[in-house]
Amino acid sequence: MSILVKEDTRILVQGITGDFGARHARLSLDYGSQVVAGVTPGKGGQVFEHAGKKVPIFNTVAEAAKQTGATVSAIFVPPPFAADAILECFDADLDLAVAITEGIPVRDMVRAKRAMAGRRTRLIGPNCPGIVTPGRGDKSSGGCRIGIAPGYIHLRGNVGVVSRSGTLTYEAVWQLTCRGKGQSTCVGIGGDPVNGTSHLDVIKLLNDDPETDAIIMIGEIGGNAEVEAARWIKAHCKKPVAGFIAGATAPAGRRMGHAGAVIGGAEDTAAAKIKIFEECGISVAATPSDMADALLRIWKG
Amino acid sequence: MNIHEYQAKELFAQFGVAVPKGVAVTSAAEFDDALAKIDTSGGIMVKSQIHAGGRGKGTFTDGFKGGVKFSPTKEKALENAKAMLGNTLVTAQTGDAGRKVQTIYFTEAANLGKRPDGRDDEYYLAILLDRATSFPVIVASTEGGMEIEHVAHHTPEKIFKVQVDPAVGLQAFQARQIAFSLGFSGDLFKQCVTLVTKLYQFYWEKDCAMVEVNPLLVTKEGKLLALDAKVSFDDNALFRHPDVVALRDLNEEDAKEIEASKFGLSYIALDGNIACLVNGAGLAMSTMDIIQHFGGSPANFLDVGGGATKDQVTAAFKIILGDANVKGILVNIFGGIMDCNVIATGIIEAVKETGLKLPLVVRLEGNNVEAGKATLAASGLTIVSGDSMADAAQKIVKLVNAK
Question: Hey, is the C-beta of A78 within 8 angstroms of any chain B C-beta?
Fold first, then answer.
């Protein structure tokens, strides 16, 4: 098993005819992922071709899902139109919408997240690297790659990884792979203040996944999502967890609003989050080079 | 994006939020005209316009005290304005360098002060995103005129919050809850409901990141006014607000950060001596952390985004080298998709183009990394290769500390 997506998950790509979407659709096809449809309004009926594979393009998400059996969307739509693309996934009752787009207005995401309540579709992101469930082929090929992560750095195995940051996720994954420790599923939940799925949501899924034996959770300054997850881990998680928090040297006040401190409280800083991680029994990596080793100190694999 | 107080109040007025009448000017030649446009009979507030808080308690670099001054007469207002304009104001939020005051805002000060019944007349109101719920939240307090963090710490019971459901927007009962929580009744209650409603409308329609009114004030005549205004906007939404973009004041922004943004680089200056150049925000932040962990001090945050082209690296080196404190550079690139050899070639060209003489440690990882490292080694330049983030950080710290 794995979480959220499996090797045979059927993927549609919204924005497949744009440069960014096309590039990563090709990389996912190369990795062996089941990219079965593209969606670009007005280009329905065209075909996206790569390496002998033909991917039909549809005008709407609902039509693409109905015709191809796609259950998950990778969203590469430009920021002004991205929230609309997300809402279209909810309307089509997809299992999962993964929004890669960076720079979506906060107000659009506030509305989209509100509209998600009561719908069956889960949203990952936005402003995220996506999800990878590694395959069992050469350099993990044959897996499900949704988004922009490099596929080849993965190895199929039993560690779940959740992070806000793309490159820090790759760093952790590569450290694991170099030590012969594979991953069950790696989820980038995105760096925006409003996102569809939290650290805690992913931790709960990994905790319930029989294939996942251990977890790496990567966070950063701002908000209290990591703290919320850490407290739940202490109370409920059955599996060993290692963690890292980025931003110990970030200047205070650069991104936090004046009154934001009232809402966030004193648990916003890296030092505060690290302290709570330790109190919750999470093995904390002292540096980003130490993420895999921090896990291996408490889990022999 | 931040704007000045006078700009925020002009927007407030457009949305029907009551503010004291005022005029902003940028030269001393305009002072007389400006003062002629407002009622000066009850005194004038003279307010330095900079993008930083703590102006009233700030001190100018020439020793003049106070960036915001009540002036009982026109003559005193002129004197204060002349002392402030062109002068550099240092506040708790500006850092030691301070900010040059390039705009003066004169506002009417009639009827300010305690109410006849002696009740405290300053309140606090803010609207921002509550990250925990992803709903906008209105924060109100009877403790206006002081730092809200201070109130939150010492008297949290005096802070009242209302979450606004974005599906239906601010409801009348919620505006009433705010007005009741502040203890208003009668006409002031009605004024407060109106003000909160219009302020929320402004926050939502203009894609604000935060709106803060501190203090919200009751005049001796019983009028509720936004005496100060602090507004910031969501950068991601600026594309749909050209009127807001027009309010941007580049004088208030770091020249290097503006230059960086032209090349798609995200740069923030810090006060250390080891510069870093990284792809990805999370990796960039943690590269700063690991430099500090091994005894160094990071000079900046610099994220080149998903790629790292020769032009970007060259621009980044130029910006980094513009900081005289920098004694060494750490490049940390996880080239997941990009070819590390292409990145290495770009780094070499950037070093040659900028004539870089400082110690440079490069840590490359990812796609085609062996070829990238070989290219760096064969360049004939004194580029030190790091095998991991930890290895690279230790090497640059050692090189810089040895100097």
Answer: no
For residue B162, the number of C-alpha atoms closer than 13 Å in the C-beta half-sphere is 25
- What pLDDT does residue B113 have? 63
Q: Please state, in angstroms and rounded to a whole number, the distance separating the CA atoms of residues A95 and A79.
A: 22
Residues in B closer than 8 angstroms to A125, CB to CB, are none
A:42-61 residues touching chain B, CB 8 A cutoff:
none
> Which residue of chain B comes nearest to A117, CA vs CA?
B167
Q: Which residue has the tokens 């300054």?
A: A221
pLDDT value at position A38? 98
- Domains of chain B are 21-108 (3.30.1490.20), 122-245 (3.30.470.20), 255-401 (3.40.50.261)
Domain A130-296: CATH class, spelled out: alpha beta
Helices and strands, counts by H and E, chain A:
10, 14
Q: 3-state DSSP call for residue B330? A: strand
pLDDT along chain B (403 residues), means of 10: 96 97 96 95 94 92 95 95 96 88 94 60 93 93 85 88 97 98 96 98 97 92 92 95 96 87 86 92 92 95 79 88 92 86 89 91 90 91 92 96 82
pLDDT at residue number B115:
54
Percent of chain A with pLDDT over 90: 85
Task: Please report, for chain A, the start and end positions of each structural domain, with discontinuous segments joined by +.
Answer: 10-124, 130-296
Which CATH class for the A10-124 domain? alpha beta
What DSSP state is assigned to residue B240? G
Q: Which of A68, A77, A94 is nearest to A21 (CA)?
A: A77
Chain A positions in Cβ-Cβ contact with residue B292 (cut-off 8 Å): 248-249
Chain A: closest CA distance from residue B34 (Å):
31
Helix (H, G, I), strand (E, B) or coil at B393: helix
The B residues from 362 to 381 touching A (CB cutoff 8 Å) are 365-367
**What integer is the mean pLDDT of A223-232?**
92
Q: What is the CA radius of gyration of chain B?
A: 26
Q: How many Å apart are CA A225 and CA A248, to the nearest integer? A: 17
Residue B306's nearest CA partner among B266, B349, B346, B276 is B266
